[in-house]
């Protein structure tokens, strides 16, 4: 089976420089994303799925320290011996690690210490890159960069939840920061009313899926293999807040026939009756508002914007109500293969889904598919503790595809597989129906 | 898409007689399976998954009453108006129904009343059959028969758990009853030591899966569709208790690298360290015994018998430890298609797995596959409340294939899909590895 | 400190005969109380507090076997070795015992076997009594009788909950059985409208509380000791359903200022909005009905009947709403001392509270007091495992006084202390206010 | 009934000055206690009982704003309208308030803003004091000061838990700060071996308990009333770590006969086998260490120091093991009345219990009593929302007496009643036995 990131292994100085650039860009951006946050903000862990922003800063440094520097930089000096287990997330094969829920107690090390930790790691990786590391080290650095990009998305997802949990509902986004963001005029971009959804038809047949080529991918995208697809159609766009409101108005959350059994049990137990960040701040008679990284916005201004922060159960129920279904991950992949990655991604600086008529497959919200997250034929986890990166989560989760408004553009591709449990709602997860 | 059981719709008196025979046989057998049980035994509901035996008797009558008699027998008189909602299991579209956990409080109606209810329903179905019912009614009767066969398996599975929960650990099986069982000499049949597992190799390629032909099937087996299979190999037999013991002795329950993350969390939370019905009755230093429908048996007598009552997590961990993996449901189906259904099934009367070197695909234990229970392309649930039979459970469950020692022989086929949540252990569920 | 039941120790044949009579009466009555029940009814355990009726039958035999026969009847032969641990309730010092929740799985031994167990024990105790046992044995028999009386009350309390849990809501009571009950005309007795509550005033001062004299008492009633009581007043009767309905109509369950913090948390978490057995069977617009051992009765017929099956939290909130408070256990005891035990107790056969203007302190419902269940000065638990009878529960419980419509008349006295956790609702527990 | 703080109501400028001094001292000390903490530390809420330090800072300001300034300072301008509900703890009668668990998400307002809030409140209270407020306002200020003293203790208790939860286990205490603390040489003070415990004997009889005189007290200390005490004896000192270790070594946590039933269930469920802050950092074979505000210390250095952070259940089990019992709250109070308040209290700066042979009743650890926290005869909660201060918690809690090493000296008195649920362990709660 093909090794991930094999390309780098065979290449010379040019690709090396390219990796260095991407390393630098990525590392800087993680810090830049924290610009609007105070050290106190970076302590909040507001739900079991989330981590404090400070922890994200530290853990992404830990990843380079543990899997790159410790193994490949001969004279590497640990920044702090304790950090080696303190910031391990879940790699049982690497070291013991603290329970996830304890991360909210990590007031020490301080943010300053964590930032120094990052600098220490950065300098060390730069030294390693200068030394002309062996191909395995380069592969690991590339993996570390991709790992950090995932945490950039998580950091924003988690801080959105943190601010939603704070009864004051502060906004992350300030007009003039973070400096790197090219802020768009939200009112304009969200104001374009999308046309009725249009279905693109695909022939199906025997198609290859999974990662192809030499560029980086995660182990869960391999091996590439044929699948048979019956003819299918995909909506040209995501379901909007307005459409979702119609589902709600039609008794969407009160009709068991629309729901999977586990979904119905979940919404009854949790009392769900709208997407996670929709709330009625002025009582039942008032209108809905939607909490975003730009603060609370009236739903009536967002009716043409894709609905986000819905669970798989809600996506599935909506699709059934609409007379459609969710696509499989392979229907999505076959449709997306070859399409350039462009759309409302992290680089747009919008930090929330926007209205769009385009039929692009990327951005705004991850798309819940009807596919369980399982291994591909011939799946081979990475060696050692890194084998826990993806493989051990292949149970009880559904695949999402396509990226969101907080996903770095370079991070994704048509074979990319995101995955969450079906009751997960704190992600930028939306709905694209198929039939 | 093809309708299930379409064959019956087109047929005349002969098939009608055949259905009547199967109806009678099935209905009698459910009652016969209760012969070793007292009315008190039939009250026990010892875990959330299980139901009391009396409830199974009543619910299977309810199914015919609700979906056959009420719709198709013009002058049908309900046996008891309350039973119509009392014995509804989970059909939201049919009526309100009691919470499942309340079934253990159904001391009324008495067992006698439930048996009269069954007779009332039996006579009414016979009347309907004599009247030459329309094809839709016949299809529903056939569905009812298949439904009842499922509950026969559940009844035995549940009573095994009930007797395991009773600290006295009574045995279900008595040598001379139930009369219909052809009891085998257990000592002999379990004494045959299986050879080392042997792998059968299959070419794979583009194969059709799902139900073919006109005979009965459930909606979840349709529509038949092509899948691409890479070349694969299946073990010729199930994993034995002795092999599983070796996994345990090698630290199987203490090594996180062998487990899915959710599986590891589950065994830590629940304190699992052996299959469900293995216990050490004489303290840690004593040997394991295995609880069966024939009572507690020493594990040392069962080393060649397939291990049973393991969860998906345990099956998956065992396979990883053994250097193999679980088969997909389609690998299993492609291998089984065309093989006659024979093996250690309910009719054998053994009521527990037995040793075997045969490479049959059927019986002893259901085989956990690595496939999530999801809809096939073009899946169309049955109309009305019956659409809840299978479809709404297509979330969070794994497919099992092949039948067990308590599955009626006529009930299964190569396209048959059983399904349970990955932490489920009270079923006759075992392991067949693939590579 | 005084030993309980010392009187018997010093007495001759006459008291011996008296004890034999009480033993026989009590043992027969337990079985008689089961006359309306089927073996299936006697399997139901519908809440964690409750036990199956069959278990009560067996456990009360076990008590005599374990604490009387095994110790005092020289050649006593155990009925069944397993029963010695199987029917132990909670005496850690006696043997291991099954978890309480497993009692619902005790389909074996059968009811018949349990009845034979009782006969075996009865005959053996009779033999012991004939032999002229030593005073300690007589004390233990007396304790066993009192223990069994407690379980008679529990048996009825538990079966009421079992029948309430059964969606068919069957009635325990049939007009002509159990034979020993002198059934009263309910309509008449409940129809008497009580006058407005009247307060009886007491001077207080230094009073002795706790059991006095030589007759039997439990260890928790000793030692008798002085307490200082400020002047106080007690209502002459229990709060009625009609008065409680007024509390509800005045927002009783929606006003946090009326509730203890733990009570408010409890009613919010559990969704309580009425006493346990009040329900609206015909939807919100319909009237309340009250479930009793005589089946469901319309609340409007019971407005003058004491409210029952309320928790301490509800009793406390009601009292606060009414501008009163709950009495302390010593206020109750000082008022009751010297009053003959008469009222609506088990022997009345009514099996539910009835209307009454009388100022008797006994019967209808146990009265929640504002006193925590704690040890008296000089408290000394019984020796050995029997020391666990009362003492280990002296934490987190409130004292109730006075007896209920299912308490045997001979069982109670002014120093008698019943106790339950403040959220307990399945008892015949009511409200008598003080000020 | 006597009003609390009546003295102030009748007094002139001198007492006014005294209150101003105490107000200033108290307010400054709260901030001073935070000197060793970073803004990140002050975000941590590591268990449901605890609150972040920043929240304590804000809530104690809120108390003055809500119950003093808003009512008594005519032109008072709210610092921030949102703070009025955001920092309400549990006063249902005052405003809606956030769930307690959300306090860990209050990254906004920032610590700076909270400190400005405190200054705003301080200045306003000073203005009110200068204006010569009416007696009711003075009473409220005095209540606010006492309230803040309680939160000083909680702040230290909570930060100890926060640092214990952080896997790095940082120490709060630094030798040179906080500046106000007069640091003692710990090694010396803890090194004094106490003699064997000695019992002081008391005659008992009819004693008055509850607050007497005109000085401030909480409503739960009133009204003063007679109680009858049998002769009793109190140990002259607290149980030491060494004595508690002997209890553990004698199977203390494995012998059900030593425990209340609820206690036994608790230690089995939670897996307790030592006081909260005792841990074996080097595995089972290593020695115990004890976590304190001065960091982790070896247990062997603390054998003569009072054991702390034990639950009521553990205190009760220890006392039973030692052949003693816990004192009642009135036994403690009668013994302490008239004794000057001196001992190892907050002002000592030790911040942990120390060894002592003295028979003082104050300091080191709160003493669990065997008394449930219930109202005194004639209890009258404060008017309005302040009535929720104490009264609504009179359920399910046990009384503690005497103060701890983090209790301000001026805060306590012989009638002072502290209270926590019996499973509570994060307090400086210890054991003093009685007999």
Account of the 3D structure:
The structure is a homotetramer of 435-residue chains. Chain A contains eleven helices and 13 strands. Chain A is of the alpha+beta class and 435 residues long. In chain A, the strands form five sheets. Chain A has a four-stranded mixed β-sheet. In chain A, strands 5-6-7 form a three-stranded antiparallel β-sheet, with no helix packed on it. Chain A has a two-stranded antiparallel ribbon with strand order 1-4. In chain A, strand 6 (289-292) and strand 7 form a beta hairpin. The radius of gyration of chain A is 22 Å and the shape is globular. The two termini of chain A are 34 Å apart. Chains A and B meet through strand 3, helix 9, helix 10 and strand 10 of A and strand 3, helix 9, helix 10 and strand 10 of B.
CATH topology of the largest domain in chain A: paralog of FGE (formylglycine-generating enzyme)
* Biggest pleated-sheet summary of chain A: 4 strands, mixed
Q: Assembly type of the shown chains?
A: homotetramer
Strand order of the largest sheet of chain A: 12-11-10-13
Tell me the series of helices and strands of chain A, N- to C-terminal: HHHHHHHEEEEHHEEEHHEEEEEE
Using the alpha-carbon principal axes, give the shape of chain A.
globular
Count of all domains of chain A:
2
* Tally of strands of chain A: 13
CATH class of the largest domain in chain A: Alpha Beta
CATH architecture of the largest domain in chain A: Alpha-Beta Complex
Superfamily (CATH H level) name of the largest domain in chain A: paralog of FGE (formylglycine-generating enzyme)
Rg from Cα of chain A: 22 Å
Largest interface: A-B, 36 and 36 residues
Number of discrete helical segments of chain A: 11
């Amino acid at each position: 089976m093909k090794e991930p990131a094999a390309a780098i292994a065979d290449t010379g100085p040019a690709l090396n420089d390219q990796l260095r650039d991407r390393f630098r860009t990525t590392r800087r951006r993680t810090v830049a994303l924290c610009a609007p946050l105070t050290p106190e903000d970076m302590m909040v862990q507001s739900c079991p799925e989330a981590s404090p922003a400070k922890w994200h800063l530290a853990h992404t440094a830990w990843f380079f320290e543990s899997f790159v520097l410790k193994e490949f930089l001969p004279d590497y000096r640990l920044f702090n011996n304790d950090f080696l287990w303190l910031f391990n997330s879940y790699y049982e094969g690497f070291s013991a690690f603290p329970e996830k829920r304890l991360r909210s107690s990590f007031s020490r090390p301080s943010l300053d210490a964590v930032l120094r930790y990052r600098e220490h790691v950065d300098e060390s990786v730069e030294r390693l890159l200068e030394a002309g590391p062996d191909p395995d080290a380069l592969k690991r650095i590339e993996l570390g960069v991709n790992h950090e990009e995932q945490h950039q998305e998580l950091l924003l997802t988690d801080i959105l939840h943190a601010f939603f949990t704070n009864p004051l509902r502060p906004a992350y986004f300030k007009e003039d920061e973070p400096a790197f963001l090219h802020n768009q005029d939200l009112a304009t971009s969200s104001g374009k009313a999308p046309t009725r959804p249009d279905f693109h038809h695909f022939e199906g047949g025997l198609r290859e899926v999974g990662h192809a080529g030499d560029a980086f991918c995660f182990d869960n995208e391999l091996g590439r293999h044929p699948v048979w697809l019956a003819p299918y159609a995909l909506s040209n766009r995501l379901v909007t807040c307005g459409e979702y409101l119609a589902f709600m108005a039609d008794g969407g959350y009160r009709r068991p026939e629309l729901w999977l059994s586990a979904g119905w049990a979940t919404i009854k137990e949790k009392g769900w009756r709208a997407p996670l960040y929709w709330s009625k701040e002025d009582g039942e008679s008032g209108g809905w508002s939607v909490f975003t990284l730009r603060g609370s916005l009236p739903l009536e201004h967002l009716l043409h914007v894709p609905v986000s922060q819905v669970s798989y159960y809600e996506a599935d129920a909506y699709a059934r109500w609409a007379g459609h279904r969710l696509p499989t991950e392979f229907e999505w992949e076959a449709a997306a293969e070859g399409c350039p990655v462009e759309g409302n991604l992290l680089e747009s600086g919008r930090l929330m889904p926007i209205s769009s008529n385009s039929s692009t497959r990327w951005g705004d919200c991850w798309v819940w598919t009807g596919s369980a997250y399982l291994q591909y034929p011939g799946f081979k986890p990475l060696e050692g503790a890194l084998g826990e990166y993806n493989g051990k989560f292949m149970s009880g989760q559904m695949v999402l595809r396509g990226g969101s408004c907080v996903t770095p553009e370079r991070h994704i591709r048509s074979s990319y597989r995101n995955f969450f449990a079906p009751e997960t709602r704190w992600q930028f997860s939306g709905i694209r129906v198929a039939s």
